[in-house]
Structures are given as C-alpha cells and as structure tokens.
Amino acid sequence: MLNLEEIPLRQIKGVSAAKEQELHAFGIHAVADLLNYYPFRYEDYRLRELKDVKDGEKITVRGIIRGLPMLSRFGRGKVRLTSKVEVDHQLVTAVWFNRAFLKDQLTLGREITLTGKWEQHRMQITVSDSEFLDKGPAKTGTLQPVYSVGGGITQVYMRKTIRQALLQYGAMIRENLPPRLVDKYRLMPKSEAVLHIHQPQDTKNGAAARRRLVYEELFLFQLKLQAYRMQSRSRMDGVAHRVDGETIRQFAATLPFELTDSQKKVVNEILTDMRQPYCMNRLLQGDVGAGKTVVAAIALYAAVKAGHQGALMVPTEILAEQHLRSLGKLFAETGIEVALLTGSLTDRKRRDLLASLQMGLIDIVVGTHALIQEDVFFRSLGLVVTDEQHRFGVNQRSVLRRKGQNPDVLTMTATPIPRTLAITAFGDMDVSTLRERPRGRVPIKTYWVKHTMMDRVLGFIRRETDEGRQAYIICPLIEESDKLDVQNALDLHVQMSQAFPDLRVGLLHGRLNAAEKDEVMRAFGAGEIHLLVATTVVEVGVDVPNATLMIIMDAERFGLSQLHQLRGRVGRAGHQSYCVLVADPKSETGRERMNVMVETDDGFEVARRDLELRGPGDFFGTKQSGLPEFKLADMASDFAVLEAARDDAADLTAEPDFWHSPDYEELRRLLRQDQIFQGDLLD
Ligand code: ADP
Ligand code: MG
C-alpha cells in the first residue's frame, strides 16, 4: 500500500512546484506532514443570535440587506462601505473597510452572513468576513482552523490545501494505535481525528479529536523511549568494561579528597552498568557542587583501564577547557592521554587529533559537539559522558552506532528533576542521584536587596576582594537578545571598572571568541581578575573555588533553576560564600522566587518549589528539561496523559509480541524510521 509519507505534495490538486518548496520551510515534505500540520486554534464562524451576544464580541450572524450601500473615502485611499442589514428582526449597520468591490454585490434583499465585532450601543458590526448565502457559504457555521503560516503561504492557502489533501487522501489514513488502547480510552479513530482536528464539527468533536491525537503523540514519544530502553538492555553488543574494584579503589585513593558516600554509591551503580555487555544509558543528577566531575572522571578512568577510550562532551568551549584542566590534574600520575577537540581547532591540529584518536593514542577526548561528527572515529570508544543540558539524543547515539560503536552513555545534569517528572522526561534512562554535597562545605548565604542598596553591594565586593577572594557580577538577562545582553555586560563592566579603579575587572560574554573567553577564564581561575562581569555564559559548570561572591543583577528576570545554577558558581571550597540578588520584582511570583532562593540552597528543594510555582508545563518548558517540544500536547494540562502513555508504552514494549506480531508493524515502522529499532536487532 502506498504510504502517505512517500506521497509528494505536488500530487495534491493546487500545489505547484513553487508552493511545494515554500511548504518545505514549514517542515512539510509529504502528504503525511501536511495532514499532521495541526491548527493551533480555531476561528468561530458559527451563527449566533444578537440577543445572546455581548458588546465587543466577535460574532457571525445571518441577515438580509435592507439599505443601499454607501461608500465613503477617508485617509489616504481608504474606503469605508456601510449598509443597513436586518439581523434577527433588528436593523443594524454593517461596516466594511477597503472592500469597495462589494458595493455592487450588496443588493437589496440579498441574504448574507457577517462576521465581525459587535458594538451594542451603535448597533453596528465591523465586518472582517462576509459570505453570500446564494453563493454557498464555505465558512459560515464552521470552526475554521488557524495554522501557523508565513512567507508565501497564506492562511487561506494552507486551509485550502489541507482541505484538498483530506479529500484526496483522508481515506488512506491508517490507525496506528493498538486497538486495545483505542478501546481502553475510547479514543477517536485516527482518520476521524485527523479530519476533525482540521475540520471540527463542533467544539466537543474538536476536543475529542485533540484528545486522541495528544494521547497518540505522547504514546509514540514514550514508545520510542521505552523501546530504546528495552533494546539497549537486551542487546548484548555494548562494551562490557572489564575493570576490577581494586584498580578503581587505588585511583580513588590518589584523589585530593575522600569520596562522599553518595559519590561512592553512584560510582558503584555506574561501574555495575559499565561491566555489563549492554549499553549503559544513565542519568547522573546532582546539585551544583555535588561533585559530578570526579564521578565522571572515575567512570572515564574505568573505561581506559578496561582498554577503551572515553569522551566527555560539554555544551561550551569554556567548559571543555575547564574539564580538560581538571581531568589533566586528576590523571596527572596515570599516564592517561587527554586531548581537547572543539570547533575552533585549526584544520591541521584537528586532522592530527583525529588520526591519534583513531589509532588509540589518545585515551580521553574532551570537547563540544564536534566530538560526534561523522568524521570522528575512535579505535574503541567505551564511554561517552555528556555534561549539563546536552542530552545525548537517540539520533546522536545512532551516529555512533552506525560507526559500529556502542559506547556506554552517562549524562550528567545539575537541574534536579523531581522524580515523577524524571521518569517521564527521561523514561529511557536509569537515574543515579548524588544526594549529599562534599563535607566541610559551608552553606552559601543568600541575600535579596533592592537596587537602592547597590552602594552596600559594592562595599561587599570591596570586603571580599580585600580578603583575597574573587567575585562574579551577572548582568540582567534580556530575553532572546544576545546582543542586548552583551550591551548590558559592556555597560556594567564600565561601571565596575570606575567603581573599583584598583581592581582588575574582567568581562565575559557570548560574543567573545573562544580564545578570548578562554583567556578570561584562565585569568579569573588564576586570580588575576578580581571581579568578573559576565552574562549567563558562566551558568553551567564553571569552577573557580576562590570565588566567594555571586551578585546577580535584576535577578527577577532569571528562572529559579538558573539562579540556583549561577549561585552554584560560589561556595566551591571551604570559604564562606555569598549570593546577592539585586531585584525589585513586580509580581508576586517574582518575590516568591527571591524568597525561595534566600530560604534554601538545596537544589532539590529549589526544583520542588520551582515546580510548585510554575506547574509542570513551564517546568518542562525550560531548555534544561531535555523534553522535545510537542505539537499538540501541553505539559501543564496533559501531564496525566503523559504518565498513562508511559505505562502503556512500557507494558507494550515488554510484550514479546510487540517485536514480532504483524499487529504492531505500523508502530515498529515508526521506530525504524527514527532508527531506534532496526528490524534485525532482536531476532
Ligand atoms: P558539580 O557537581 O557541580 O559538577 P564539581 O564536580 O565541579 O561539581 O565539584 C565541585 C567542587 O567540589 C570541585 O572543586 C571538586 O574538586 C570538589 N569535590 C568534589 N568531590 C569532593 C569530595 N568528595 N570532597 C571534597 N571536595 C570535593
Ligand atoms: Mg559540573
């Protein structure tokens, strides 16, 4: 049978080659994509009666032309057309703007429907849309889908094209959920749901269509996670790291500190997994400063001792450099070769490095995403550790898999996720949690002050730097504008340099190139810079133990977990450390956020309060969450569905039938598409 995913858009009547190209820009490549391009709301063209309508509402009513239309001109070439129309036995005035061409069509006695804004006191409708009944109205009486459109694709075109696609191909839409789940939740069948999400008969019918498609979306998402998990657990083609406990204990003994019980526990969990022949896929979550890096180092050490290579992947070059330094220190006496691979290497250096990696001359490579590009080959990659925010997606894993490498994967995150959310968001992973922080850590004192107290804040900077300590001052965040953030940073840098002419004030922001950033971080790490003005580029992972003061300007602009991340840049050694939030929040939740920060410096507690303040929707909305964006599902209102879908998906993938029975061919095909399941894997 022909597959809707393979039918090109041009087969749809009315789609030209040019339009086809423009549709590609919306991610619409085949008929299936078009049918799955759901509206984000509806315009209501259902007929109402005037007596039920409130002033100012947008309405559709039916009427009869009772007065000769009048044209008047105003402004620059603008026209206003008015006519008296009888609606529900009352005479109202209909007003059109810039529709002069309608004048001749508005003949006495003709029946018309008017859509527009109702003004009660003037008995007037400002018409945005009208249809003549004798022409066979298309919109009147319906809910019209509103799609996200742009460029050469207009709303009218999108509606028409999707309507046409439904006509031509609607009958080919196949059910893709197992019948028993459709029954269990009394879901609308797939083909009906697709039809009615675009063309709802009424709100109830539209809601039922949405309900079905939301469940489907979340179920398929969970199915991929669960299937992936099942697959990696049952495939014995991962790397079974052969390394004994004694080797690890000896290495741990060379560390400058004793591991916390929590660290020991997670190291054991990780090593247990690494020794198994399946692919580890584990999430390590721990508060900022909990000591995740050393756990990663031990895991990497184990990989190398077992005769393999390790990779540590981080989001920024600053972090890559820093990890390179800390691993360099930890492995100083071990003979382990650590190298750096980032996007800013020269071609020549990159070539040399890639050759050494492939020959196995390098044991551990630290870097940004450059690490998993197609041209990077390892002699024997045993473990990939990824740090902060960068979940190592299924796609990236399959890049490695295609190269014949199935490394264990450890993902670290400092945004603790409450358990219920974790199992859902990271449904494909096992989770290890670092609960305690290293002993001897003095809790960070957090203060919240108004801008009027800036003088005292400057005094604080003076006091700490006089003690030989260092400070960060973070500029306000301007949403989605890197450029403005940089301007802020420049301004703040000037102010601070004037306020402290005797100190060296550094500047760090996203527009510096890698070498510049690196130099600033090196100088700050070496204590040559006393006060560092920075944007949120220091948010993740930066580790300068001598820094004891974190000042965050306009703190109300930051989310709780981001504030907590920033605060985690201090308090990293034995010194008493401080975080000062400079903020005059206007909203109640803004004040609440500041209070949470003052009251607790436990990241799990911060996350819990954050979830409480924002609800799961927003919590998931943050980029740290690692959840993909859903087309229809909304994490705030559909959270219960997500949990149900997860259980259903886990049950289904646990059934041997799922992997063989023709009943599930359609679902397996979806998994194959995402390269999660490759037909032969389990056979
Ligand atoms: P994070 O979990 O935020 O990545 P890091 O790994 O950067 O934390 O560790 C924070 C600091 O704590 C580092 O300076 C590290 O050397 C130190 N540290 C880690 N583990 C211990 C420990 N068991 N005892 C004392 N200090 C430790
Ligand atoms: Mg870290």
What would you note in describing this structure?
This protein has 683 residues and is α/β, with parallel strands linked by helices. Among the domains are: 46-141, Nucleic acid-binding proteins (OB fold (Dihydrolipoamide Acetyltransferase, E2P), Beta Barrel); 245-275 and 291-413, P-loop containing nucleotide triphosphate hydrolases (Rossmann fold, 3-Layer(aba) Sandwich); 445-600, P-loop containing nucleotide triphosphate hydrolases (Rossmann fold). The protein has a 7-stranded parallel sheet with strand order 11-12-10-13-14-9-15, with helices on both faces. A hairpin with a 4-residue loop joins strand 6 (111-119) and strand 7 (124-132). Helix 5 crosses helix 6 and helix 18 (588-599) packs antiparallel against helix 19 (603-621). The longest helix is centred in the first third of the chain and has 32 residues, at 203-234. The two termini are 25 Å apart. The structure holds adenosine-5'-diphosphate and magnesium ion (MG). Residues 292-293, 541 line the site of magnesium ion.
